[in-house]
Amino acid sequence: MLRRILFVAVTAAVMAPGTALAAASDNPTPAAETHAEPGNEQRLQSLEERVKQLESTPPPAPATAANSFNPGISLILSGLYANLSQDPANYRISGFPLPSGAELGPGQRGVSLAESEIALYASIDPYFYGMLTYAIAPDNTASVEEAFVQTTALSHGLTIKAGRFYSGIGYLNSQHAHTWDFVDAPLAYQAFLGTQFGDDGIQVKWLAPTDIFLELGSELGRGRPYPGSDRDKNGFGAGTVFAHVGGDIGASHSWRAGLSWLGTSPQDQELSDMNIAGTAVTNSFSGDTRLWIADFVWKYAPSGNPSQTNFKLQAEYMRRQEHGDLTYDSDGALGATNTASYDARQSGWYIQGVYQFMPYWRVGLRTERLDQGTVDFSSNGSNLARPDFNPSKNTVMLDYNLSEFSRIRVQYALDQSREDVTDRQWFVQYQMSLGAHGAHQF
Amino acid sequence: MKNVLGFLLTAATLSFAQQAAAINVFTCEPEWGALVQELGGDRVSAYVATNPFQDPHRVQAKPSLLAQARRSNLVVCTGAELEIGWLPIVLRQSGNDAIQPGKPGYFEAANYVPKLEIPTRLDRAAGDVHPGGNPHIQTDPRNIGRVATALSQRLGEIDPVNAPFYQARQRDFAKRWSAAIERWQKEAAPLRGANIVSHHKSWAYLNAWLGMREIAELEPKPGVEPTATHLEKILTQLKREPARMVIRTPYDDARASEWLANRAKIPAVMVPFTVGGSDKAKDLFGLFDDTVERLLGALK
Question: In this predicted complex, what is the ipTM?
Fold first, then answer.
């Protein structure tokens, strides 16, 4: 075959050099420009056809090397400068106690490393996909943020995930910190979910075969992180159910709304709180916690093209119900240990808008509030009281995105999480992503 | 009550029957939607995930895309990392095993054409480079022809009953397409050797086809928006080495090319880039009719 082409090419070259040159070039010259004899024209045509045939055969498969099956690696590097008018050591959200180790508040003053993370991911085989996200905290500790396997070979809209993963409840919960539009998580997320709920367990999701997006999901987990508590049990410690709907309105608008439920039964959950006298105290809670989340997000980009301008509006409402026993001064530090029934219904919300007003630049506003609701301390009421104050916070941010991979952000917040105290918080942050090109959720 | 149930059952059966009549194809870009329609006729129902005014690289895995991927039998996309920011998530969350990479239901057009501008050095310092080469393969109609051959075979694999139908339509399309290519090439002969400036490296294949020379891009690096200093630099370059026109896609911001065009006294041309990118680019034939017409118009 090749020999024949060569033969034709050589013959053609000998007979009419100009024609052969034209045929050999990758860009066929219009026939009108060639001055070939009729016999040559036929040969030329057959030659061109062969070149075309050769061109249309698929390119050879890439050569394999020992490292060609290495997983995709992506790295997020982030750093933060914080200027806080109040001492972050005594940061708390009044009326919403959290376990002592919980991720809470604005972090340290001055310059520090912010959460940096390494993610490794790949298809495992034709049936599973796996991912590991390792987070490196500024205090030189590292933790497994997510480590899960997920099915890719199930049909009928089903996906099953197992391992440690961020729960699908709400809107922001399943998103990694580097995709947030503000430096910190909303107060409601901090107060009700200890910033983000990522449990060890199993998740089943089903996508409906409809034009409109409808997704139903449920998770069963260990219940290790707040609002659950780790314990020695063969069964499950936490469960969730969630539903999301979404779609487009024309080419420029898309939206998603959801409703989620989280149920867990913490045992001896240690909480750092403040008593009526203003003394720090450790309490412990055993009982049932139920959390409802309603979420909504709407995105606008002219004709669906976000590169010049775009807008995103996002809001979530959370409502928590706790029922059980609260032990005051559970570690006996104040010598006043007392157990009594505890009932609370509290809620919180945030709403935020982020507007890209020109390429590279985005501005964002967030306002949020927590509602103390009703709290019944029973006989612990002599030591503990529901604050007559609702925590709130207003935040404005401006970020500059030099490329898809780098972002520099300035944020200012008036944080009134502590009763009678206003914390003026300035942040400057960078977030960069290296390595494999990430794909982000809506 | 019984009547209502009966009605619902009939409705359900009918809607299933309708679904069974055509295979659902999820296409990432309008050109592949148009090609699937050319090859599949009424046996396929093509959904197009992006519109001509969107940069297919900067789309999000929005809910509507997930819902469509869930119901599709075949995904047809450019590949070569063009859709890397959203397609992997859409596929993984679709709960549809038929369209996962490696399955017959996953078709990457870029695998069937010789690629240009394959980088020899992979470093993001050079901007958003695509390791597999330039992904904007549809700007050369000969590539569309190559993809059509492979795609008709794939359609036949997915829907064997209609395989002869797809083959016949491909042969018919190929005949009309090569005649059209010949015509376009004749018409576009004056463009050979013309110097052009482009907004983004979107036109490598068009340039290779028509023999135009891209001497500068408005983007300092691929994926980085044009800057004033970079535009000034191009303006100086054009004094030394004049270009005939500045071209851009429908989704590129017009301001940068207008700015340069006004100062360099050359036309700024919006080229449709894909089906639907201009009023005349109603189908694949219209796309290249209009592309050639607009480019020739700029030479005058």
Answer: 0.86
